[in-house]
Amino acid sequence: MPQSSVRIADLTWYDFAARVKDDPIVFLPTGSVEQHGPHLPLFTDVILPVAVAEAVAAKLGGLVAPPVTYGYKSQPKSGGGNHFPGTLSLDASVFISLVRNIINELARHGVRKVVLFDGHMENQWFLVEAADLALRDQRAEGVHDLKIVKLGYWEFITKATEAALFPEGMPSWELEHAAVMETSVMLHLRPDLVRVDKIPDHPAASFPPYDVYPFDTTPIPPDGVLSSAKPASAEKGAIVIEQVVPDIAASLAKVFGKPTEA
Amino acid sequence: MPQSSVRIADLTWYDFAARVKDDPIVFLPTGSVEQHGPHLPLFTDVILPVAVAEAVAAKLGGLVAPPVTYGYKSQPKSGGGNHFPGTLSLDASVFISLVRNIINELARHGVRKVVLFDGHMENQWFLVEAADLALRDQRAEGVHDLKIVKLGYWEFITKATEAALFPEGMPSWELEHAAVMETSVMLHLRPDLVRVDKIPDHPAASFPPYDVYPFDTTPIPPDGVLSSAKPASAEKGAIVIEQVVPDIAASLAKVFGKPTEA
Amino acid sequence: MPQSSVRIADLTWYDFAARVKDDPIVFLPTGSVEQHGPHLPLFTDVILPVAVAEAVAAKLGGLVAPPVTYGYKSQPKSGGGNHFPGTLSLDASVFISLVRNIINELARHGVRKVVLFDGHMENQWFLVEAADLALRDQRAEGVHDLKIVKLGYWEFITKATEAALFPEGMPSWELEHAAVMETSVMLHLRPDLVRVDKIPDHPAASFPPYDVYPFDTTPIPPDGVLSSAKPASAEKGAIVIEQVVPDIAASLAKVFGKPTEA
Amino acid sequence: MPQSSVRIADLTWYDFAARVKDDPIVFLPTGSVEQHGPHLPLFTDVILPVAVAEAVAAKLGGLVAPPVTYGYKSQPKSGGGNHFPGTLSLDASVFISLVRNIINELARHGVRKVVLFDGHMENQWFLVEAADLALRDQRAEGVHDLKIVKLGYWEFITKATEAALFPEGMPSWELEHAAVMETSVMLHLRPDLVRVDKIPDHPAASFPPYDVYPFDTTPIPPDGVLSSAKPASAEKGAIVIEQVVPDIAASLAKVFGKPTEA
Amino acid sequence: MPQSSVRIADLTWYDFAARVKDDPIVFLPTGSVEQHGPHLPLFTDVILPVAVAEAVAAKLGGLVAPPVTYGYKSQPKSGGGNHFPGTLSLDASVFISLVRNIINELARHGVRKVVLFDGHMENQWFLVEAADLALRDQRAEGVHDLKIVKLGYWEFITKATEAALFPEGMPSWELEHAAVMETSVMLHLRPDLVRVDKIPDHPAASFPPYDVYPFDTTPIPPDGVLSSAKPASAEKGAIVIEQVVPDIAASLAKVFGKPTEA
Amino acid sequence: MPQSSVRIADLTWYDFAARVKDDPIVFLPTGSVEQHGPHLPLFTDVILPVAVAEAVAAKLGGLVAPPVTYGYKSQPKSGGGNHFPGTLSLDASVFISLVRNIINELARHGVRKVVLFDGHMENQWFLVEAADLALRDQRAEGVHDLKIVKLGYWEFITKATEAALFPEGMPSWELEHAAVMETSVMLHLRPDLVRVDKIPDHPAASFPPYDVYPFDTTPIPPDGVLSSAKPASAEKGAIVIEQVVPDIAASLAKVFGKPTEA
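Output (structure tokens, whole complex):
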């Protein structure tokens, strides 16, 4: 019965029309096609926010729009860098206008509650701009009650979960690219796509307090993993998911004045 | 073993780098989030070209990039019209720059053979522009050997397959929106997403030889289906797939000077 | 007495102001500077829609704005291709914004009935976008009663006229580039610009069901004419004009609720 | 024999290809659809530069491209202002990109000598930008020998001609909008389009040394004519044409190293 | 006490909020980083309008926004040309959108009286466009009472001041680049930045009535100064300032219905 | 003697040309016009990076370009939010294209070492894009040796300086908006612009792990200061400056292969 799906992709237009009548929260996951080391697939930053967004949406009677799968350019300090093979990134203007356009389209059909649900750190500031411009566009269309939330699911990880992930202390969230957290959640959600034999174990990268363009590749680990992924496990991944999903749902329920369903 | 996947999304960057060394054909499916009547999901125009592209890529040792899932604005005569709930479309400038950017990113990593593999008729002319502009961009980068093919998979349906689909004569390809062909292929590939009980059966739409903006909705069937889908069947869908996949593969093998694998 | 002219170009601003008070239909012909074989001038796609639009406008008390003379890039299957000398084409973004801007200017002065009157097949989808964006612009200006019709005059050719043009059966409208229809109408309207001694006669072009960029010139006839123009005659041109002008006028009279004058 | 025409519009592509082999000067007239008082048509700023450009081109073996007929927004001090009915103007971005695109297209076909031949004062600075950006575009295409001249034909009027036009002294070139010079040349070239009975005679407008937006219409003469046109005559128009045509031709012959033919 | 400053830069947001309540005139100086010969600094076109605007603002209880310091491309006839070292200029689209954006931001905070206060002749037409587009943007935001004045301070120099500057007759305002007027005012306002020993003295440049791109540098004086600056003096500079400041203030007081304070 | 100035603004073009011959590092400070509480001026984010950049440039024989004074939109968590009066911000597209354009202009004159020297946290990601696009532009111009560094001067504050600033422990760098560090450095550099009597002292703001658009102003302190500025002092400001200036100079000397002068 696709009509109960949280995925807009699965619905017919009759389903969509019926669901939008209830003023649902609509989630737009945003990710990237980005290197994630020798052990994780290029779609890691899409798979994770889509999975989390769908779980959160299910709790809130929400809908999940087809994700924005190409993201902003990977940077050395947070993603290894755009030069790694397979990293397919968008110019800021393209990413911003794509997200802005999708928000406007949702609003055109009556959606008033949108969550930009990010899985790729480099997207964050461009999502800010897309939200601001879409609100401007909607004002010109006479729509004044659109509300947009922007979040990265990892920002909801509590200190307790952090301790479970890193019993010996956490390096830094920025260096968590393709490392313990992402690998653990992938092992939990999509073990078929993790090359367990290739999980890297090397010291965390160390960067100077400035950035060089074209990239200075000296401080970037050759495998693109910014800190060791060795301590990752499916159990840790489950801990993350079981904590962040209800916490994000609770936050959004409050922001949007919605009951949570589960 | 994801490394044998045709999907770029499933690969690690090491896989991608290894595969690109062989100068593969890379497919970029382009679709839409568009009403497809009471019986087909909004993602029909994504599901179909992705499935066909993956099958063709498998025969050619190619790769399939994550699809462009939002397409150009649905028009009454070919898709029912952009006003139907759930139809989420892009402005021409956004769609063109998105496709152009992805082509440029593939080229940056060494890809020289790209297929814009369309599943949504309204995208066609904007794909032309994206291809032209990407070639210009690449010239400025000193790349002169990029070759791009644009196609709609339905254009490869032979007269014989047409006769199998429409034993009593075909109405028109433009009116085939959410009708016999698309419904049949969906029944073949994703029967879980087809509402068999809602397959419509009404006369084909009839349009005047001009277009009115804002849309004149008078000639548009209220369910958004442009001609009867009743004669659809999974068997007919199988016939389409079994014919077009090898035919497209053969054409592309010739265009790009590649052997077909199967 | 220029004030009775259908051409905006010929009017003074007093004339224009007086005419716009009657809420006239304003025609914007759109063409191209495009090769039309060895026998027709580069302006064929401007000359024809301007002539037809002026004749239609005369019947409806309408006005004809100065034409958009540069059009979208010529394609092999419909126009021979952009590489032919003398073909001067616009990027999609330029063409769209030009047409959008002109519509907005007409609306600024009070025009509410606009016809995008096309003479170049490649323009069609970009006219769709221009119309959609101009309607959006006008909504932001508080204008909600602008109505835009888009048409290609050749779409109004009836089966009867088709039979007169092609007594032995018609090849395809797409292959009619610089062929029987266009040559006939040029012989009827502007014989001074037709090189009768150079009218080509060769088999129709045959194209594969895909497009290659940069163009594969193999299937393109070297003279740029997509099917034989030999059977063209001024008489046939007269038949076309005498049929399409009243028919287009009748259609527009109905769409816009206007009486026809002749 | 259209092949001897200076108008690109009249040529076949074979003619164009043959002519471009001689490295001709190609003229792009740029005008506007702009109010010119109660006596001159809205197309005055197109008719005049086209006529002068064609005469100059004839002397230099040059070609004239189809004119850019919509221009930049009319300003009170030089054109009366954009608010006058019938004045249809382009945004700067549209005008610039249109001219830039046409220059690039000419260059694509091998043209290396371009004259932006202006008939509308408000276009001047945007022509500068179009030329600069087209040169940048051409550098990216590897073209380094494109040369562009920008001129307004009125800038070539000598003191002697000025004295003939204004025996009692000239007010100012900026206030010459729809006044003695333009009216005289129209009377010489296109008397059929001049309403002789409506030629205005009132004192010249007087403007403060600043501009107000939205326009302050107080200092603008209600008929849009900035100074008296009464002294205009066809004879004066002939004097202008007979002086500027050879002078412009001589200048361009020198700039481009071309012989003049007459 | 910064709160009494005319400079927005010096205010706290509390100061700004308090000042805007009085509906002040807000000045946006626009200049350039442009060669000004061997004796004047690259910032001459910023220093001068900022100083004049601050003096005028002080008389009107106005505020001065941080200046737009990069301007449109220097042209041979008015600024020597963009090729001179140190001339850092903006593309038209960047300059226009920057000014437009700042106007919109002022309007967002309640400002309704804006003066674009120019110090660089090449900016003028692009300021026109920025003003027009900002008014359009504000209409879409529902703001209909924004008024914008555009001026170049030099346009207010009276015949009497002109006579004081050029006792022997004035060459032309366009050739006044880095010459008597600008040098005099710099000597008056910022003598520390004038290299008195390098003040040039050579005949005025003479240009043909057309422009060539890329620039024909033949007629451009090698030092970038368009006419002699020799007669410059601090006294003449004081005369200019003492005349134009009250005159501009008086004009603006009238335009905006404001009392002058001094 | 302006020729020894680090400020490009103060140089003549002869000075600039001479200095660029030595392949200097050119600094482009980027700031904002942004609320900084009741005690600091709107120009704080311009004053600080300009001062630091000039000090660093002096040590490296570098030059400082006129700063980009308008920045990206202030956000609640890092700057209080764009809604505060006096905060004048740019759209992402405008900010990016402005910085990109200035970099391109520097490169046009031969500069190959550029430092984007940021004083406003919200600018950071848009500087990344500007750098990336300018490098692309330069490749199209045939320039392949341009190197760009992007930095925020605060990122160079060492743990030791941090301890001096916050003897009782630091809250968070993001909450340092208009707080101890910025106030201290302003007290050190521009005490005339600090309202000492208004330095706020209230608990640090606390934000949820998501962002709401339009802003949820609940968690934002009404004065716009994100944590207490009370402990600020000119001495602390001096400590910051004396540490970061040589450290940044040393880093850049290494990156660009330049000796430090002091």
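Chain A has a mean pLDDT of 96.
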